[in-house]
Amino acid sequence: MKAAVIVFPGSNCDDDCRWALEHVCGVLTEMVWFRNRVPDDVDLIVLPGGFSYGDYLRAGALARFAPAMESVREAAEKGRLVLGICNGFQILVEAQLLPGVLLRNTCLQFLCKDVFLKTVRSDTPFTHGVPDVVRMPIAHGMGNYYIDADGLKALQDNGQIVFQYCDHAGRVTAEANPNGSLDNIAGIVNRAGNVLGMMPHPERAAEDALGCHDGRYLLESAIRHLTRA
Amino acid sequence: MTEVAITPELIAQHGLTPEEYQSILDILGREPTLTELGIFSVMWSEHCSYKCSKRTLKCFPTRGPKVLVGPGENAGVIDLGHGLAVCFKIESHNHPSAIEPYNGAATGVGGILRDIFTMGARPIAMLNPLRFGRITDPHMQWLVGGVIAGIADYGNCVGVPTVAGDIYFQDCYEQNILVNVMCVGLMRKDQLMLARAQGPGNLVVYYGSPTGRDGIHGATFASKEDPHSQQRSAVQVGDPFMGKKIIEATLELIASGAAVGIQDMGAAGLTCSSCEMASRAGTGVEIDLDRVPQRADGMNAYEIMLSESQERMLAVIPREKIDVAREILERWEVGCHILGEVKSDGLLRVKHRGEVVAEIPAVKIADQSPQYSPEARRPAYLDTIPVAPVPYPAPPDWGDALLRLLRCPTIASKRWVYSQYDHMVQTATVVRPGDGDAAVLRIKDTPMHLAVTVDGNSTMCWLDPETGGKMVVAEGARNVVMVGAEPLGLTDCLNFGNPNKPEVFWTFDKCVRGMAEACRALGTPVTGGNVSFYNESKGLAVFPTPIVGVVGKIEPPRRILTPGWKNAGDRIFLIGGAEQHLGGSIFAQLWQPQQAERAGYYDEREPGPVIGPCPTFDLELERALQQFVLEANRRGLINAAHDLSEGGLAVALAECCIKSGREKLEARSGKRSAVEYLGARIDVPNVKCLASWLFSEAPSRALAACEPAHAAELTALAQDFRVPVVALGEVSTDAALLLGDVLDLPVAALLAAHETLPY
Fold it and tell me: Of B59, B126, B199, B392, which residue is least crowded by CB atoms under 10 Å?
């Protein structure tokens, strides 16, 4: 299998994603410049974190027009796996590959810390090997997920909510919500289940050297899904 | 351009003395143009020329077997082995931040980043030493919030983790906050790039943001007393998105081999970068200002040369490589503008609208600035500091005293600050901010780790500039040793008042001499730094505040050490010097029973006056302590180590408990426990002054913990190194800090106090 990481101007977790995929998980990974198309033989596309276009206008608002995004959309429609992390999630919602929006954190500050996540769905291509409660870092100023009431109901009815902020025991509480996200939402999938957007950073929690390897479960779930198919 | 008459008033407005103006006339053999006057003014400002400090700075040791680049370039470089080198530098952005905290701090970050990547190093860490006034003052809270947001927004956006820093709140910074910024970069040794305009005929290329009218005379501004009397237009505005693009473009340009020299346009903008690059290479540079991209209409030569617009770079590219360079720069959308070329005549020649507006020998501006030896006089206040320690009545409750110290904003957890900084991007931060005496970064694809720290206790420097200077260097080096690293080198930022006041210059000179002596004794060469004078408002100067940034290397068999206790039953030792007295301690600032008018405790957010004297400091003992810890770590004898600093022994013990927290993970179910803590059971010896034993901030002291089986070897090793060692007690399973019958506090209470927000 083959993975690709899209590099937008201002991406800054692109190399961290490459390291986690290639060095930690042993997957051949190609860096795709935002002006180019994602090659057809790529099975897993990662939209990395960072500040594409400096977050100017609105996080992700400019990156969605990048030429590479057309091929990301096509790949998503063909059922290939697309993972948007942090700014990648923001780009996916701006590109309307995922519903909803990401607002400023309610504390109005950038927040970098470890959080616990409840794995709400463990039957997606990304989460079938992920334990019920995992720990990963967040690092964002605009991670406050919002969607209107109908949209939220659709997400719930379709089982699109994949991760929720929780405490160490898996309790989804207001105190465990770092940014004010509706329903403690930390990550969602599209209806087909092949496009995942999440604010926490699995690539920053993929090795014990960094204090936690929970993120590796997620990356390896996707890889196993692809190599098994 | 219509020539303006050069009057004595105009000369004075440019901060030049009549003697300096005479030297300009001698150099040129004629009257300068206005543009030339501006060029001399910024280049001969204290900020760029170090005209008052240069002679004193010569006492720093700057060489060492591993030093690849010392002072004089954009940043220092030290050999790490494995074909790699570490590049680092600290700088101040005090004056701009005092007026416009957000942009002042943000552009400080942008500027120090450029110093690192222009050398060919990828920036891998930022550190921010900050000094603020009393935190209860609403204006100070606005400054604090602005500075932190400015650092965060720039650093987070460019993807360089901010991994460490320190913050002190002290009344002397009320009018002049200090914002220092340090950047550390990693490079392949063979990609080292120097800022030299080599090779006559080579092209001088400008890339990055266009030039505007912002920040004209920023360098002169930083060389004047009282930033508050200045205009905000001297503060620049940063664009981190452009910053990120020029990092990537510059590193790619260097890797491609297309550039022979690169310098950023920082203080004094295009003037400084062109003069310095020519001067270092012994060449000349000719540039045409009509080719400079501009974002304001109708700028004149004076404005273009002196603008300090951010995110601008100057590169020297051989003609045959210009296409390679252009492809890289245009791909990153940073522009590629050929301004002129390198000449062999040694002149900086500036053309604008078809006329030569400046023509000056480059070396005369850059390297032959006036040098002064300002008058030095011992300040009278030093005579008011007691020579002998004041006797200290015990406070009513020792537990309460410790909790007050833990809540004190200077000592309390800085989580509220570093949680706003992305400290994990680049996935290399192994010891995060708050988790160790220094931050530790792994170097991917090697067995090495880097330890980085910034330190500077100005209280001790105020009480005794020379001893305080030594202690600052010692603490920086000790902090990297405490995480397991061997110190490699040091960068310093010297923040002082007006050097033309003999008392200020005296403290500067003494501090630097003290620091230099400690650098020599501890084997940490100084590879560069920055002097920030004129941190003075309303006649009040800041405490002498030298700050050091130290870089160290951890390589197997040495391990990474952290302060948190590891196992119940481990033995706890106090290693190093004796407690001495409470002079210079924060406890003495909080508990002031001897004050006639306000006897008792001061609010921890509004500490009372500093009480002397400065503790004595023994460089030989310090060196022995560091060598001993390095050797004990090499032998794998210790599993926790923590320097004693603000708050003394009691605070250090509390911190080791607080940092012992770990979650338990059930392997099968994946269930997690809440974080569990270890405690400590300490025997309190029969001492003359219990307050001193608990809270003294005497130097050269640390805590170390080891497994019981290693205790005898550790003690014997300490004796070999002639380092005093005292068995204090042991790590306990019950999460409480128990000090004999003096104090018994649950870790939860320590933690709650330590996590208190300052406002």
Answer: B59
- Give me the residue from A12, A206, A211 closest to B425, CB to CB: A12
- Token readout for B360 is 């000056």
pLDDT of res. B537? 84
Instruction: Provide the domain count of chain A.
Output: 1
Of A166, A203, A220, A225, catalytic: A203
Query: Using CA atoms, how far apart are residues B681 and B569, in angstroms rounded to an integer?
Result: 10
Distance from CA of A162 to the nearest CA of B (A): 18
A17 labelled catalytic: no
pLDDT for residue B597: 74
Q: What is the CATH number of the domain that holds A174?
A: 3.40.50.880
Nearest CB among A112, A132, A211 relative to B419 is that of: A112
Percent of chain B with pLDDT over 70: 97
Mean confidence (pLDDT) of chain B: 94
Confidence band (pLDDT; 50, 70, 90) for B594? confident
> Which one has a higher pLDDT value, A57 or A39?
A39
Instruction: Give the tens place of pLDDT for each residue, B36-53.
Output: 999 999 899 888 888 999
CA distances from A83 to A72, A98, A100, B204, B359 (A): 10, 11, 16, 43, 57
* Furthest CA-CA distance within chain A: 44
Q: A15 contacts in B (CB within 8 Å)?
A: 426
Kindly identify which residue of chain B lies nearest to residue A139, measuring between CA atoms: B422
ipTM over 0.90: yes
Nearest to A50 among B159, B663, B672 (CB): B159
Contacts of A109 in chain B (CB under 8 A): 149, 152, 420
What pLDDT is attached to residue B46?
Answer: 85
Residue type, B736: A
Domain that holds residue A74: 2-228
Q: Where are the beta strands (DSSP E) in B486-585?
A: 486-495, 526-532, 536-537, 540-541, 545-554, 571-576
The pLDDT of residue B222 is 58
Closest CA to B531 of B497, B487, B488: B497
Q: Hey, CA dihedral for A176, A181, A182, A184, is it positive or negative? A: negative
Annotated catalytic residue A203? yes
Q: What is the mean pLDDT of residues A216-222?
A: 97
- Cα B670 from Cα B674, distance rounded (Å): 13
* Closest-CA distance of chain A to residue B248, Å: 10
How far apart are the CA of B755 and the nearest CA of chain A, in angstroms?
A: 15
